[in-house]
Amino acid sequence: MSQEPSIPLSHRVPDLGALELLLAVARLGSLGRAAKELGITQPAASGRIRSMERQLGVTLVERSPRGSRLTAAGALVTDWAGRIVEAAEAFDAGARALRGRRDSRLRVAASMTIAEYLLPGWLVALQAERPGTAVSLLAGNSAAVARQLLEGAADLGFVEGLAVPEGLDGVVVARDRLIVVVAPGHPWARAGRVVTARELAATPLILREEGSGTRQVLDAALAEHGGLSAPLLELSSTTAVKAAAVSGAGASVLSELAVGEEVGARRLVRVEVAGVALARDLRAVWPTGPAPAGPGRDLLALTRRG
Amino acid sequence: MSQEPSIPLSHRVPDLGALELLLAVARLGSLGRAAKELGITQPAASGRIRSMERQLGVTLVERSPRGSRLTAAGALVTDWAGRIVEAAEAFDAGARALRGRRDSRLRVAASMTIAEYLLPGWLVALQAERPGTAVSLLAGNSAAVARQLLEGAADLGFVEGLAVPEGLDGVVVARDRLIVVVAPGHPWARAGRVVTARELAATPLILREEGSGTRQVLDAALAEHGGLSAPLLELSSTTAVKAAAVSGAGASVLSELAVGEEVGARRLVRVEVAGVALARDLRAVWPTGPAPAGPGRDLLALTRRG
DNA sequence: CCTGACTCATAAAGCCAGCTTATGCCCCCA
DNA sequence: TGGGGGCATAAGCTGGCTTTATGAGTCAGG
Predict the structure, then answer these.
(1) Both A288 and A264 in a single domain?
(2) Which pLDDT belongs to residue A1?
(3) Where is the secretion signal located (chains A, B) (predicted)?
(4) DSSP string, B88-149
């Protein structure tokens, strides 16, 4: 494609407003109605769709004096746009909860893996079922989650761990495994290669900064195999860790939830590890006693049918 | 959440440029380096991150005279942002192929379901493995795909159908099932409810416009049960169909690939159907003879390990 | 102990994308 | 033969993001 990849993605992909507009046109069958739904004028919508078509180099909408219909290419682009918008909705749900004031109707405390990969989807679903429910999110490790709950600073918690913390009741809502991944091309990526727990322990890995649940589980599991080596690289977000691993900087250990996409597309290769179990349960928890009522009950119900 | 939901998503979610910048900061550990990577100046990056923090109401980055690190909230937001950016990359890969000139190195013809749900991911992976491979995409039904291949207008095809079209060889790359979905609250959503093929045939459904592979399969499967009713609603994209179904307008039949997310979050409920099989194979196809070489071979290899 | 290299923040000024209002044309239906 | 819905074009405004230019804090090394 004659495009220089140096020009950033944001100049090649229409902005969210334009994508939302396109979805509205697909749904409503008219530029004008779509414009009204988004609170802009019809000429603004017209121009916006037109400039999106110019940017993509593809006609998306067939205009007629009786409305607008998607072209074949437009239908494809609209579906692809839908996935961006879905991700944006999850982002928004998460971000709102993150800034949510402590007086929210539902205060959730969750560990990182859950907050990263499961909670945004739950929040979107909760918002659909119980519109207007105000949720606040506090992310931290298991100990911090337990403390929030026991202090009454949170109504419902989610932890990733081997056992339910002292003073809490809980149910398993999902299961997660830590897996070792490397870039294709890494020596460990060879088919059939199995890494021993001892090898893994002796290898400097790309990891999140200390304190992450993943790292604690790994530490515990490898304690009897020589102990975890000092990291090769310490990064501040799972996304950064994945990026480093994909770029071939070295081996990493990540939640299965985190790398599904990358492993599917073979941007990362999963490495078998012998002699050590890295599975863990993800649990909803609350202070010992009756299960939460109200919005907490609604959210809890959601998590058990994903 | 004191936010009015009336203000559109695009005003509550930072734009792609800002999200890319945040990812770069997470990866590189410095606003200045991130700015350079994106080809903007350091003050621009500084201001952009700041305005994103203002927009979200959360501090994302801890600045210091020796660099910048993500806060705990920042790490979460960064991971959520990563998923938006991934979707945008798939969008971009697809859009480029859609506008790709006919002189591209690899000309792909694909049916809708595949072009919508599988191809963008494959193209991203192909771009990672073989940078610079120019791909063009032509979407159409199985007959159109076959024609393109036989006329030499396409190098590799993907069809969703019961059999390999005349004159082509092929391999199955994935399997898909059509499923009946309704909004929770629809009479058919009751647990244990099983719909008969005859009932389904007699019910007006929300469908894509005519000519879609989904609709053809449905038509064939229901022919012996009274024939498909006239649609309740005909919409121009899968996304629009899903939106109508979610909003409770009626029952719809969609590819399993299309509604995974919605069913997972129970925005849609899958309905069992008795007496009719709606599965179909998704195949890569090429003109009878040797399998494609060059970039076509690379793409084919990709599709068989997802 | 001071210099240079790195970090980030602030200020001033310019540009461009997208918005609105005001039109005009086209098609269909009553 | 109007009236209403639908889209396009033109002109003018505005706000956000950008760049350049600068200042201030931290650290390593001569």
Answers:
(1) no
(2) 42
(3) none
(4) HHHHHHHHHHHH--TT-SEEEEE-HHHHHHTHHHHHHHHHHHSTT--EEEEE--HHHHHHHH
